[in-house]
Write a structure and sequence with these properties.
This protein is mainly alpha-helical. The chain has one domain: Amino acid/polyamine transporter I, CATH 1.20.1740. The protein contains 20 helices and two strands. Helix 17 crosses helix 18 (about 440-450). Keywords: Membrane, Transmembrane, Transmembrane helix.
Length: about 500
């Protein structure tokens, strides 16, 4: 590791250029920056690959459990797809208006100011990303281990051990390798979905419709309207990942065209596939059987694909690895941008000289993920992470409305209808608010952890009360330990990391 020597400053202005854009436009390769290497196909693959992971193989149980019947659960799946598409289109406008990586953090910073942006960064690192990665890796572990013990339940300790191994199978090496990996895994995921959809729809076409009779009958003893937000949380969790591309805006080729196009293609594909997959599930299983299954795709395969049943868990496991890969590729970019703007330790703004990846941000996420894998349970983790995630997504689209009002002439290469933004924002706030009543323990804990970042912001960011000597010691100690981790776990002969930082916090638009 070496200390920063080169500093670059974003000039803002009407052109909204990033450091990476200006360096590339001039054809200079000597600058240390994230390269634009993500074209349309990898962009679509990153979105689909991040969305289609463990969700469609885990969430059907949560949606059905909280919606009360088969018909309403299918309606929830369709509405979650529409809502996610609305949100993705809002983020397409944000991504083409503010051409900086960082996703939620960047948009909150540009529209609502530093405090909401810092709280999003705080929540992401402390519990959102660890929780999300944990339940994806737990799904990976369950689908690897469960077939070995059927019809008996798999040992929880073994599931968690395999899940931890799955967390390690993510990228730190290069943007190109991560892109190629994601494209390959995305095609595998689509094949896995097709393997479920085709036999299910064929059975439905042959008249196997008994599981859809009285589909909207509700068991009044077990169902209450207050559980519906949790059904939406499970469904939206399965669609989660549509914002992944916004984390890496500075690495997308021609973002004005590729970001909206990739989002539209991806979300239409995913929504259609998800609804059809659930129809296929219910064609082969009753609602009660689905609720009893610990691995829905395995149960489906044992009935519909008897000759290929052993291959389905492998495909699902690879699907989970693709979701982990996409998440660990995108989220460290948000930490990277936060550090670059001065809202996070400078260590997270370091990128590898040769590989052009934010390696420290990736490595420093692992410990929290491993702790949550060891202690977590899938549906508790979903509710725990979803409250803050959707609260900040709603804040980001609210910020878009505020920004439109304050800066009506701001250039927007892609513009979403005003009504669509309002509908998405209001629905998100309603789901978030109702979930506090439905599951006060997990969602309340998520809210409390988010608000714990407020004193941190005022003590360490807005007016730092940390002595300069302590900050210097922390920086040097962090560099030392990261260097040791790099030497022990990776390849000792690689070039050290370097940092690309801004001299001052920069904004594309003025702030009050």
């Amino acid at each position: 590791m070496i200390k920063p020597k080169h500093y670059t400053r974003s000039m803002g202005g009407s052109q909204h250029e990033t450091v990476a854009e200006r360096v590339e436009d001039k054809g200079k390769d000597e600058g240390v920056h994230l390269r634009r290497k993500i074209t349309l196909l990898p962009a679509v693959s990153f979105i689909i690959g991040s969305v289609v992971g463990s969700g469609i193989f885990i969430a059907p149980k949560g949606v059905l459990m909280n919606s009360g019947n088969v018909g309403l659960s299918l309606l929830v799946w369709a509405l979650c797809g529409v809502l996610s598409t609305f949100g993705a289109l809002c983020y397409a406008e944000l991504g083409t208006s503010f051409k900086k990586s960082g996703g939620h953090y960047t948009y909150l910073l540009e529209t609502l100011g530093p405090l909401p942006a810092f709280l999003r960064l705080w929540a992401e690192f402390i519990f959102i990303r660890p929780a999300v990665a944990s339940y994806v890796s737990l799904a990976f572990g369950r689908y690897v281990v469960e077939p070995l013990y059927m019809p008996c339940p798999a040992p929880p300790a073994l599931v968690k051990l395999v899940s931890i191994l799955g967390v390690m199978a993510v990228n730190c090496w290069s943007v190109s390798l991560a892109s190629r990996t994601q494209v390959t895994l995305t095609f595998i995921k689509i094949f896995a979905l097709a393997l479920i959809i085709v036999p299910g729809i064929m059975a439905l076409a042959q008249g196997q419709t008994e599981n859809f009779q009285n589909a909207f009958d509700i068991d009044t003893e077990s169902f209450t309207v207050s559980k519906l937000p949790l059904a939406f949380y499970s469904g939206l969790y399965a669609y989660g990942g549509w914002f992944t591309l916004n984390y890496v805006t500075e690495e997308v080729v021609n973002p004005n065209r590729n970001i909206p196009l990739a989002i539209a293609l991806s979300m239409i594909t995913v929504t259609v596939c998800y609804v059809l997959v659930n129809v296929a599930y219910y064609t082969m299983m009753t609602g009660a059987e689905l609720l009893m299954s610990e691995a829905v795709a395995v149960t489906f395969a044992s009935r519909a694909l008897q000759g290929m049943a052993s291959g389905v868990p492998i495909l699902v496991s690879l699907s989970c690895l693709g979701a982990l890969n996409g998440g660990f590729f995108g989220v460290p970019r948000m930490l990277f941008v936060g550090a670059r703007e001065g809202h996070w330790p400078a260590l997270f703004s370091m990128i590898h000289l040769r590989r052009k990846t934010p390696l420290p941000a990736v490595l420093l996420l692992y410990p929290l993920v491993l702790v949550m894998v060891a202690r977590g349970e899938i549906f508790q983790l979903i509710n725990f992470a979803s409250f803050s995630r959707w609260f900040f997504i709603a804040l980001a689209t609210l910020g878009l409305l505020v920004h439109r009002y304050r800066f009506p002439h701001y250039p927007r290469p892609f513009k979403v209808p005003f009504a669509l933004i309002v509908i998405f924002t209001v629905v998100c706030f309603c789901i978030v608010g109702m979930s506090l009543y439905s599951d006060p323990w997990n969602t309340g804990g998520s809210c409390a952890l988010t608000l714990s970042g407020v004193p941190v912001y005022y003590l360490a960011i807005k007016r730092s009360y940390i002595p300069a000597q302590w900050r210097k010691a922390f920086s040097e100690l962090s560099l030392y330990f990261l260097n040791q981790i790099y030497v022990l776990l990776l390849i000792p002969t690689q070039l050290p990391c370097h940092t690309l930082m801004l001299e001052h916090r920069t904004y594309s638009t003025p702030h009050l």
